[in-house]
Structure prediction request, 220 residues.
Amino acid sequence: MVDEPSQFFYRRTARRSGVADGRVVRQVAGGHEYAQVRVSVDPLPRGSGNQLAWRAGSHIPARFAHAVMEGMEAALTRGAPGRLPFVDILAAVESGSYHESDSNESAFREAAEDATEQALRRADPTLLEAVLSITVSTQEEFTGVVQALVISYDEIIQAISARDRTASVTAEFAASKTHEFISEVLRNTQGTAEFSMSVVRFIESADGPPGAQDDWAAVT
Prediction:
């Protein structure tokens, strides 16, 4: 399972387009359930966020539109345990079908979520890694040590400030380097350093949290 820090530091996106159908056909107590949804996904420029579109016309009744959108959002943002949210995706409802007496919101929500998940798998999914702005605050005597550590990781110092015998050094780090860097700083400042960090942007990464690569292998 992917832990919470990994959920914070990693996302997924798509490299190309994908299309898939989700279908619910089953017997339930007192009758049947039916829903069919076709969803397409396309990559958007980095930082665009997710967008939803409706192109199904009258193939899916308006009363089920909200449930369909909920299913698509679930696939993009929640998924199953251990998976990572998708970002910068345009997901569109292309078509679908229904049965006047057997279709309901629950069936359409499930069909839309399944269609979106399968479309994402066909869209060459890839991992994104956070770039973090990290500020290290420590006693002035350790300023040179922190600067040297930043440089040793081939990162550029973006800001240095000092106040009341406390110095702050700010630099950007890829998430995969963060844990080791923080450990090194603490070891070399006698455990006195304090840290603050925020996500600046996401970049494509070949690595990621354990297990994340296998459960979202691309399909054709």
In short: The chain has two domains: 1-14+124-220, 17-123. The longest helix spans residues 105-121. The CA atoms of residues 137 and 194 lie 5 Å apart. The radius of gyration is 23 Å.
